């Protein structure tokens, strides 16, 4: 069974539903306070997935994810070891890192995704929404690029709930390379089924209508929408209408489908590692 | 307070070529103010007074403080490129989370966590760099729109160079114990109270004087002066404030109703707690005891299931929101959250927030009085504050309302509600019962103490005037509180806390004073209390309402573990004293006694208040002839601020964090359908949850306060019944919890200053009587509540008073949230019924207000009839016959139908003639008779539905595919409007 470390504390606030999502995906989540990880009470070596959930880590006072990313890169464990070294060791051992919303913002600031250059430098930004405000609204996303292999040829209705989700690439080369390698794995869709340019189908003004990114090595994944807020059909805003129309919602089309996909990817990697 | 040049500063600006969204917003705001700024660039500035070298800062600041792609950081030279600029930072001592966090991140980056002082030495500021030249007056206009002088320092400049300062709290000279001589004349006593902001009246001052005279010998024996210390007077003033003691809700009232005298001994005991006791007795007689804590703790507690309890509390935060809308609203939300997780032993997990707001008209055009903020500014700020507090706390804001009335232009009403769940049992006993023992340590956790929030309790107990100091306003820190609430949940689950309460009004003096009643005494050492900065007087430490603080009772054996857990969680926790049985609240500073008060006198010594009330029921005046174009009228009504879509506000609130929200504020195929009640799952195992509704209708209060309060109560109930909740029925296992919040103008009669005080209090009595009648009739118990008595704004000789208002927040358990029913139409051909009867009741309606007409009968609640309708609708719900259900309120049936169409993206063909001849056509379509719900059912289920509902429902028509709402009277088409037109009219930017 895929073991997942879901961090909490320091302003994260989606750990409970995230753990529920992993359980529904057949994985084994452990919710641990980040301080317990830093204190050495939990070890990354015991997990296949490290998950950074949504929330407002450290209040997002200096920009979303900024402070937490700094702790990852510059912080130390109680025993004096560097947190960043542990992250690199975890990835080196084939571990997967997932970040949703604030978690994605942390991954981006820490240079973990997309990491095209392989040196963990920040290559994209999640800048303030074009609307200038925090918004909670449901959007439609489509699996694109490597996402098709990961999630299947599917579309997902999911809520976004953020003030800073406008994905910007550092420069045209990064943009081209990310696109070329298929790292934009979820794309906001407009009503006509194309990549959403206009607000509100593109809720934040993200370049390439990018809702999610995969790292070049495929081990780090981050997304702005919240699959953990769509764990059952009754989380959907139109669940009553769908029920009346007799529509059946497949689990794979809810947020659980996304959890299942990356749990499977982590399991595959773990199995390959074991076989090797 | 003063300023000093910053040793270093960091400027973080948006890189050239990158979009500056914040700058665009400022430009738009300036445009609204009639200012042509050209482009505006916003930089973040950090003023540092820390031992850090320029080299270190140059290396670390760009990484630690700026985004690597869209931002750039420069060190020590702060420059502006435009013609002029505005620089805004916090006043000295005002909460500045961003600065504190910047200090922390620099410490981490430089590995200096232990080398730097633990007080704040990094201060965040914003530089607004304006392209076009503005005059000084124009700059000031922009600056005061961007900042608030009460909490911010706003500076202006031109040219390239920007002078950056750090706010510095100046330490006052070491404290000297002051005593207060109360042996002075009456006038002098009153002046003393006024000068010190005590808000104590003469009777109270004399009671205090007598008490100290009686205690003189005893005090002298124990080494104290016979006169009270300044600190003791402050404690008494805060504890005896209207805010804390509810003297008016507990007053003896002579009430003249329709000319007949009727004494009321305490509104609270008679009508509110009285009603709950009647209901509790009914259930206890059949062996059910699900109301665990009512009116005795920070929040009401009822049983949710075998292992969990539900906690409910709603508070208001009106005065602070009038002065500093963002900070006031934030503090309101966070303070109310603390009440929820500070109930019983503590540690309840927050499940949802509700938010009900009353503002003045957004196009308010009267000249603003001194100190009065424009209603539009208040509204925007309050919504931003609610967003910041709720979202950052990870608590979904699931339900609410916004009401506009000119009388809310002085003071807005900001109601913050919270539902929470706690495990029934902790390792150290039942969670909902405090179990504080002699010898338990008094531990404070969370934020530090500063001078912010001195006199909050007395301040909010008085009328708001233009002479306020910034120290009465506090700004919350959602992050510090989130850390504290996570810690509380963890510590309480481990059984380390024997009781707790939050630090709100009155600060430590109130929290320790309240908890001390459990053992009969407490002693605290104020020098132990962690401070934001040096220089506070001991009485200020005791009284400060600095936010995000909890006071805990901890067994000696558990103290070590609790403090260690707090350290690991980076939550500051400090033992400051002990509970004892001395009968006193004893505070020392560095060993010197600064307050030693009898707990009995503190809590029970306040003299009983006597008040006069008067109300005469009025017969309704006739309504003039109405000749309406129904279609045009409906479109006009849909666009009214009190009716139009709240989407622009709702979307700024996270309403689904935690993944449990099943019925959200906006639903349906269009994602626009407004819902009456919210439904939230309790957890991820099982399908049970709770439904929550809130209702208020102050507009009816001018005509009949009794009918108004009944109407609000009914609206809250019918919203829950609509969504599929069962009324509390003896024999079933209900779990209902309700909260009442009264907000009224100054109702203490004074022949000169408040000549209509008796009528105002009369209205309040009638509202309370309504609460009692409705609560006991429906067996819906109030479990907590709050009253706010002085909602007046006075400046320049003008007074703006709120209309008497009562909000009811109702919560009920749903055994299976999958049975919830939403408001919007869902399928072509579904049959549309109206549950409940319509009367000729246009009094107070939005229609007459829009037409500037008066008169008409105010909608009355016929509770027997209403209950029968609800019971029948419950039966239909039980058979799963109800496809959609939407309550009729503002704008009546036509507005409800329009919302059902907009939300579902369907039309409807409706005939209102079957509703009968009791009402005129305008009343049938736009009247706001209570207890009515628009329901749609499958055509095949319609006969069974009609049978179950009997004469409680009327078939009106059906849902259609043609995207047009057609309203007929018999065969005559009265209005036909496309859903696109309805939607366009209704989707206004409400704020």
Structure notes:
The complex is a heterodimer of chains A (276) and B (991). Chain A has helices spanning 15-24, 34-38, 66-74, 83-92, 102-109, 146-151, 172-180, 239-244, 255-275; strands at 3-8, 28-33, 49-52, 96-100, 124-128, 135-143, 155-162, 164-169, 184-188, 210-214, 220-223. Chain A has nine helices and eleven strands. The longest helix of chain A has 21 residues, at 255-275. With 276 residues, chain A is of the alpha/beta class. In chain A, the strands form two sheets. In chain A, strands 2-1-3-4-11-10-9-6-7 form a nine-stranded mixed beta sheet. Chain A has a two-stranded antiparallel ribbon with strand order 5-8. By secondary structure, chain B is α+β, with helices and mostly antiparallel strands. Chain B folds into four domains: 2-168, no CATH class; 186-245, no CATH class; 266-433 and 648-820, PurM-like, N-terminal domain (60s Ribosomal Protein L30, Chain: A, 2-Layer Sandwich); 823-991, Phosphoribosyl-aminoimidazole Synthetase, Chain A, domain 2 (Alpha-Beta Complex). In chain B, the strands form ten sheets. Chain B has a seven-stranded mixed beta sheet. A seven-stranded mixed beta sheet of chain B has the order 39-41-38-42-40-43-44, sandwiched between helices. Chain B has a six-stranded antiparallel beta sheet with strand order 4-2-3-6-5-7, with helices on one face. In chain B, helix 21 packs parallel to helix 22. Chains A and B meet through helix 1, helix 3, strand 5, strand 6 and strand 8 of A and helix 1, helix 2, helix 3, helix 12 and helix 14 of B.
